Amino acid sequence: MLKRLLRCVREYKWPALLSPLCMAGEVAMEMLIPLVMADLYDYGIEMQDTAYVVQKSILLVLCALCSLTFGVASAIFASKAATGFAKNLRHDMYHHVQKFSFGNIDKFSSASIVTRLTSDVANLQMSFQMMIRMAIRCSMMLVLALIMALRISVRLSSIYAMVMPVLVIALICLTPAVFKIFDRVFKTYDKLNNVVQENIHGIRVVKSFVREDKEKEKFTSISGSIFRDFCKAEKILALNNPIMQLCTYSCMLGISWVGAQMVILSGNNPDVGLTTGQLSSMFTYTTQILMGLLNFSLVFVMLTMSRAPMRRCYEILAEEPDLNSPGECVTKVSDGSIDFEDVSFRYSATAQHRALKEVNLHIPSGATVGILGGTGSSKTTLVQLIPRLYDVSEGCVKVGGVDVRDYDLEVLRDEVSMVLQKNVLFSGTIKENLRWGNPDATDEELIHACKLACAHDFITSFPDGYDTHIEQGGTNVSGGQKQRLCIARALLKKPKILILDDSTSAVDTRTDAMIRQAFREEIPGTTKLIIAQRVASVQDADMIIVLDNGQVVDTGNHEELMSRCTIYQEVFHSQKKGGDE
Fold first, then answer.
1. Which of 16, 321, 525, 541 could form a disulfide with 370, with the two C-beta atoms 3.0–4.6 Å apart?
2. Residue 457 domain-assigned?
3. What's the whole-model pTM score?
4. Do 162 and 19 share a domain, yes or no?
5. pLDDT tens, 34-61?
């Protein structure tokens, strides 16, 4: 997992390497300062040698300046490496998500993906910066300070060995409990983002049903859960600091007691004693060990918090797309004919219920086909298999006489234009939204497609016409206008197959009829599949497919189905009766 994430460093590997090297230089300079101070005290001030004092003072200033330079350089390199790592990680995750099939996306909620791309990556950025800077600093400071302390006095340094096992045991005891809490916290973050996303997206529904207080309660409940988990984790981690403080100041007390005795002893036997300058250095090194331990505790906390985001980001990168183009793929769709051969479909391998059951259909190229059925009859599922948004569980779907699994995905989907049930427009002008269908479309082609979709008249009624700005999600246009813009966008692809998934439900019957008439006259060679709830929308189709509970009940034109299909007759008479009334 760590190896896969570290690949995202890429072009920032040199700053990532230079930062710890500069930090090592800073620590080395800080380690020299106590030694110079000891010599200054023992051989300069004690001996009243002014020249020696000046010489050592200059050396102290140089060491401090070098330490400052190395520290600034390390901070700059670490910042560049960490922000670059986060940029590449976010880039890799986002681009990988674009390869996901609908099946892959179903495994992650949209709120979870947003959290992983934002909060989780930000946490990993801070952790990475701390690893290449603070982790190197505190570990080197601990090691070098211990080495320098051993160089001065092995006897005094043995005091450190007495407290180290206590620190190790404390970390081993605290870590597992905190890991579990942070895993739970970041899952709760997904729920929080989902609540916010739903509330903002459906704010009109919330206000129309006067559910603001209920939404506030829902948000407060989840936010409170995060608060409680964080408090619990922080209470456990808070034990880390006093334990370290206790051990460190115990060392200070022991060094003071034993060191004072050794200084006194040095008057009688200098070979086994300790000078005042050396004892002063030992206190400095003990302070540095204290700071190293405190910094280490901060690094420990940050790395503990980053374990869950690391796993969550890795899950996105490790998820293999369900649908890929084959090695030797077909790169041309010959025509718009469609064949379903013994097709059955499950949304997951473990699902017991089949959404589609043994479907057999032949749709000739250029035909207009209506698809009718009750809610939950798998009408949308049927058409989603054509552009290979899902793969069949059994059987095969052919377009132009070729199994869709043998096509290059981009080629297939360029020739199959689909207007989904949930029409989506993006923030930008009408022109920019329409050119999703064809980035190179001319203004004349835009106008022609909009006329076919009966959208030109309402677009020109806007003050800015085709340059009118569309808000995110198309909130500043009506449902019918949004549907017609989506149809025009699909037509600009000039596809061999056009699928309209209940995409005229928000327009009046007259406009619906005009759109269908335009399709017959202007794009006769395109195979048109129209999913509709109204019989009037598919009544004049070349073939009508009646679905019920994932099975094809009957196929035929309007007259044939009226003579033999009970379900079709019931739908027709119920809608005709409603119209008469």
1. 541
2. no
3. 0.71
4. yes
5. 778 877 777 777 677 788 888 888 888 8
